[in-house]
Amino acid sequence: MDSEEIKSETILEIEGLKTYYPTSRGMVKAVDDVTLNVHRSEFLGVVGESGSGKSTLGFSVLRLIPPPGRILDGSIQFEGIDILRLSNEEMRRLRGRKFGMIFQDPMTSLDPLLRIGEHIIETLCLHSDMSKKEAKTRATELLDLVGIGSERFDDYPHQFSGGMRQRVMIALAICLDPSLVIADEPTTALDVIVQARILDLISSLRKKYGLTLMLISHDLAAVIERCDTLAVMYAGQIVEYGTRRQIGKEPLHPYTQGLLKSTPNVRLVGAKASFITGPVPDMTQPPLGCRFHPRCPHAMEACRTTEPTVRRLDDNRVVRCHLY
Ligand code: SF4
Questions:
Q1: 20 to 30 A Cα–Cα from 12, which one of 95, 96, 150, 166?
Q2: According to the model, what pLDDT value does residue 241 have?
C-alpha cells in the first residue's frame, strides 16, 4: 500500500487520547494527546523506545489499561462504535469478536492445562455459533496455517518453544476473523532468526486475509520492512506519521532520523550505526517545550520553551517539530 492507496474505510479513529497512570511521584502521561486513524487492511507499525507510550496506546484501544491507569480524555471510535462508552461486559464481547491480540509473552495468555487444539476450539465456540465439530476442523486448519502442524493438536503449551507458542497465539488471534489485530512486541522474547520468521508469518497472513494490523515494536528496522504506514512515538506522543516509503526515504522528525541511523544496515559495508544520546525522559516531568529537545541535535531556543504542534503536511504525513 502506498500513500495514494490509503483510501479504504477508516475502522479506528483515535482523537486526542490521554491515558495517564497516577504514581507516588506524580502523574505518568503515558499517552498524551494522540490522534491516529487506521484503515481497513492497513498494516500500521507503531514504533518508539521503551516508555514511549506505544504499548499503552494499544492497550487503550483494547480497554485493557491496568489500574490505577485511566483513559482521562479523548475518544476511540472503532467501526463506528464509541468504545469508551461501552460497559465492561459490552467491551469484553467486542474484544472477543472483533479484536485479535498477540502479546509479548504467550504463556500469560495460554492456559497451561489446556491442550492447544482445545484452546482454539474453546475460543471459537465461546465467541461464534460454530459447533464443536466445525471448530475442531477450523482449529486443525489453523494449526497447519501457522506452521505448527495439526499433529500437535493435543500438545500442551509447555511442550512448545517460544516461537511455536507465539504461532499458537497467532492462530488464536486470527481464528475469529477479527477486524483488527493488535500485536504488542510479539517477538521481543525470541532470538533474531525466530523473530524474523514470526514477523514474516504475521505479514504473509495479513496479505493472504487482508487483515488490519497494528504492530507495536521498538524495532524500527523490523517494522519498516513489512508495514504500510508508521506512527513514531516519543514521550507519549506521535511525533511523526507517514507511509513506509516516506519515512524510510525521508524521515522528517529528528527522533525518527535518529532511530533510522541507529539501525545497522548490512547493505552498507563499513557504515556505522549511530545512536540517540541521552536518556528517555521521566514521564512524570517531561521536558518543557519539545519533549525531545534535550536529545535533539537540531534544538533551537523555541524548542526549549514552546511545545510544537502537530503539523499535517498531506493526508498521510504528520510531524510534530518546529522545523516544519
Ligand atoms: Fe528538535 Fe526542536 Fe524539532 Fe523538537 S521541535 S525535534 S527539539 S528541532
A1: 166
A2: 97
